[in-house]
C-alpha cells in the first residue's frame, strides 16, 4: 500500500449542495480535498456567488451520511444560455472547514469505492455481482424501477447494471432513464451527470434492439444474461474511468472558455489598488504586529512552530495563517485537540490503526498524519498528551515515519507540525509533566500570543470585524459599535480573550434591531458590571490615577520586551522581582501561576 495519498485527484460526486449566497438547483460535479466543482440552474443571472467571492457550502457525503460544512472562494464561474435555460458552473477552492469536517471529507475520498446499482438481479445474479466486483465497487441492489431511481438520485453511482430475465422490465428502465436525460438536458451540452451512457445491460433483448440502444448512446455495454465475472468487472471499471474522464473534460472546457473571457476583460480593465491582507485585520497593537511579523518570517520554512498563549487568544487562527502562508495552502490542514481524547483514542486518531488492532477496528484507518501528508497538522493543547504518546510524536517529527496501531508497515509523511499550548511548556518540563526532548524539538520557533487585556488597541478592530461577520451569517444589519459600548469593551479584563469577545459580539448582533448601532444595552450585564473605566492620562484625572497608568505601561512594555520573563523585566527596570510581580499582578499583567 502506498504511503502517499494523492491530493489532486478529483472524484465524481453528484449531491445536492446548499450555498450561501444561495444558488438555485446547485449540485456538485466533482470533488477533491482542495475544492469542488458545482453546476446550478439559477433563477436569474446575478444569483449566487461570483468570482473571488466567499461562499459557504453544506452537503452530505453519499453512503456515509456524514454532513460537511465548508467555507470557500469562487475561483471561476461560467454561465451559459439565458433566461430560464441558464446553466452556471463554478470552481470553488476550499478554505476553512467546520470542526472536523475536513477530516471527514479526506477519509471519504481515501476510502471510497465506485458505487454501482444492480437492478432486478435475482439471488443468484446478486451473488455473482458481489463476487465479480469484490474490491472494485460496492453494489446496491434495486428490486424495482422506483428503487433504482432512488438509488441513482443519490448522485454517486458510477454505473447501472440492468439484470434479470424480464426483457420488457429491463428495457423500460433503460427507456425511462433516456427520457429523463432528454427532459433535464435537451441540448446535450450539460455535464455528464446522467447514467444513460454508463448502463451495462445484462438482461435478454433482441440483438437489433441492443444495437439501436448502443448507437443512440442509451447503453454503455451489452454483456447478455449472466455475463462472465471478468467481463462485468472490466465493464464497470471502464464505465467509471470514462465517466470521470468526461466529467473532467467538460470541466476543463468550461474553465478554458472562462479563462479566455477573463483575459480579455483584464486586458481592458484598469489596475486597481491592492487590498488589505485578511490576516492583518484585527491586529493593530504593537504586540500582535510583532507576532504577525514572526508568523510571516517562519511560515515559508519547514520548522515546527509552538504557539503559546491563554485559552481563546487565537492560536488556531494563527495556525491557519501559518498554513496559508507556508506554500502548502492548497494542501490539507488537519486540526486535532489533544485534550479531547484518551491516550488510546488519540494515538489511533493521529497515527491510524489496522483492521483488528483492537475491538471496534473493523477497517484500516490511515490516521491524521497520513491524511495531512504534504500539508500541516495543528496539535492544540499538546500539553495534555501522555509521555508515551509524546515519544511517538517526537519520532514523527524527527523522521517523518508513522506506524499505525497494530501495524508493522511504516509510512513516510511530509507534514508541517504546528503545536499549541495554553501553559508554559518550559515549566511543564521542569515539573516533569512534559518530555524535554519533545519540548526542545517543538521549541525551535516559539510564538507567545499576548492576552487581549494586554493589547486593548485590537479591541475596536476585532469587534467591528465580528460585527461584519455576524451581520452576514445571522442576516442582521448592525451599523457598528457605539461609544458607550466601546468604553465597556475597553474596560473589561477579557479572561476568555478573543473567543469571549467574539461570543459577546455575536450575542449583541443577534439582539440588535435592523440598522441599529450596538450600544451598551446589548452587552451582557455581567460584562458591564465587571468593566473598569479607562484612566485618561491626558485628561484632568488625579495624579495618583495618572501615575498608575504610567506605571502599568512601563511594566507592560518591559514584560513584552523580555518575552514575559519577570526576572529579566525586573533587572531592566531596576526592581526586585518580587515587587515587580506584586505590581504586575495588581495591574492585571501577571497571574500567580505564571
Note down, in words, how this protein is organized:
There is one protein chain. By secondary structure, the chain is α/β, with parallel strands linked by helices. The protein has five domains: 11-111, Thrombin, subunit H (Beta Barrel), CATH 2.40.10.220; 114-183 and 191-246, Rossmann fold; 286-450, P-loop containing nucleotide triphosphate hydrolases (Rossmann fold), CATH 3.40.50.300; 453-531, Helicase, Ruva Protein, domain 3 (Orthogonal Bundle), CATH 1.10.8.60; 543-587. The protein has helices spanning 101-111, 123-133, 145-152, 167-184, 207-215, 229-268, 286-298, 315-325, 343-351, 368-371, 387-399, 425-430, 436-442, 458-474, 483-491, 497-511, 525-530, 543-561, 566-573, 577-586; strands at residues 11-12, 18-20, 27-31, 35-40, 54-60, 67-80, 87-97, 114-119, 137-142, 157-162, 199-201, 221-222, 305-308, 333-337, 376-380, 401-402, 411-412, 416-421, 446-448. A seven-stranded antiparallel sheet has the order 1-3-4-7-6-5-2. Strand 5 (54-60) and strand 6 (67-80) form a beta hairpin. Mean pLDDT is 79; it is low at 1-8, 182-194, 245-280 and 535-540. Residues 281-510 form the Sigma-54 factor interaction domain. This is AAA family ATPase.
Say how many strands there are: 19
* Helical residues, percent: 40-55%
Q: Provide a count of the helices.
A: 20
Radius of gyration: 30 Å
Main sheet specs: 7 strands, antiparallel
The end-to-end span amounts to: 48 Å
Regarding CATH, which class of the largest domain? Alpha Beta
Computed structural class? alpha/beta
* Strand line-up of the largest beta sheet: 1-3-4-7-6-5-2
* CATH superfamily caption of the largest domain: P-loop containing nucleotide triphosphate hydrolases
Shape summary: elongated
Please tell me the overall pLDDT: 79
What is the CATH fold-level name of the largest domain? Rossmann fold
Total number of domains: 5
The CATH level-2 architecture of the largest domain is identified as: 3-Layer(aba) Sandwich
Which stretches of 5+ consecutive residues score pLDDT under 50? 1-8, 182-194, 245-280, 535-540
Question: Beta fraction of the residues?
Answer: 15-25%
Keywords: ATP-binding, DNA-binding, Nucleotide-binding, Transcription, Transcription regulation
Organism: Corallococcus sicarius
GO molecular function: ATP binding; cyclic-di-GMP binding; sequence-specific DNA binding
InterPro entries: AAA+_ATPase, AAA_lid_NorR, Homeodomain-like_sf, HTH_Fis, P-loop_NTPase, PilZ_domain, Sigma_54_int, Sigma_54_int_dom_ATP-bd_1
